[in-house]
Amino acid sequence: MPGPLSLPTFCHFLLLWAFAIFHKALGDTAPHPGPHYLLPPIHEVIHSRRGATATLPCVLGAPPPSYKVRWSKVEPGELRETLILITNGLQARGYGPLGGRARMRRGHRLDASLVIEGVRLEDEGRYRCELINGIEDESVALTLRLEGVVFPYQPSRGRYQFNYYEAKQACEEQDGRLATDAQLYQAWTEGLDWCNAGWLLEGSVRYPVLTARAPCGGPGRPGIRSYGPRDRKRDRYDAFCFTSMTAGHVFFVPGRLTLSEAHAACRRRGATVAKVGHLYAAWKFSGLDQCDGGWLADGSVRFPITSPRPRCGGLPDPGVRSFGFPRAQQAAFGTYCYSE
């Protein structure tokens, strides 16, 4: 007849029973079999800025006998992953445009963290660190989030002129890229209120409303109004662009200049006429406040306000004000220049 259970044996069975009950409460039929080699990240969202160096942590609790680590980026709206780097713990090989700027941190023998140098706007998104050991693969997901600003954009022809691909190109021409759903939502929480619908990176069309009103979707709760996914080639809307801190700086040149004279004025100062994204970044990150309309590279005239005041745009909130697209020959404005 077996003797009574020892205290260590009893504690072992009690631990297994509690673990099974915990998984059952979560809806799992049984605990996940086999060892878990990857440690869960302490922070799943990593914040960075354009031009900085970002580290995405991925650490092994214990190394399998043989393994590889595969880093990839989950592309929003495209249902695919882009391979970045593969390592066996000793050697690493980069792939694609991001692979040339990515490397392993190698802080210790269990460190599989990814380092991205010279962070770009398109680097924001979701990343996957996958451990491949031939028996039971596992992965952790992290999000790289850039500090930045979202701005609505339409061309000189007026509103609702862009299909998805034209909107994407327009943002890139203004030192930005199409904003994501998450970036638009954050911009709305920070005060963005805009009645015109615009393309987002995922292929959906939305617009943010802080004050519900008749010309802007009618009465209702404030929030992000959505048209849902649209036909990327046929449907036409504005664009919501996203930009981040720049390496250079923006400055104002006063005068009564035409657009061509504005270009010449910036060239004389070793600079170029600023793009719309440059101006928004200077307003957001450098606190640029100038109550004077100035030419920008796309032919629009705008000015940034961080401290709203009478006779300086007439609106109670900070922002970048716009005079639209005057005639290029109209000698009535200064210009904003950008220099690196």
Automatic annotation (TrEMBL):
UniProt domain Ig-like: residue ranges: 35-143
Disulfide bond keyword on record: yes
Subcellular location field: Secreted, Extracellular space, Extracellular matrix
SUPFAM superfamilies: C-type lectin-like (SSF56436), Immunoglobulin (SSF48726)
SS bond partners: 195-216, 291-312
Keywords: Disulfide bond, Extracellular matrix, Hyaluronic acid, Immunoglobulin domain, Repeat, Secreted, Signal
Signal peptide location: 1-27
Domain Link, chain residue ranges per copy: 149-243, 246-339
TM region(s), chain numbering: none
GO CC annotation terms, alphabetical: extracellular space; perineuronal net; synapse
GO biological process assignments: cell adhesion; central nervous system development; glial cell differentiation; positive regulation of neuroblast proliferation; skeletal system development
Molecular function via GO: hyaluronic acid binding
Function: Mediates a firm binding of versican V2 to hyaluronic acid. May play a pivotal role in the formation of the hyaluronan-associated matrix in the central nervous system (CNS) which facilitates neuronal conduction and general structural stabilization. Binds to hyaluronic acid.
Family as reported in the entry's similarity comment: Belongs to the HAPLN family.
Name used for this protein in its record: Hyaluronan and proteoglycan link protein 2
Organism of derivation: Leptonychotes weddellii (Weddell seal)
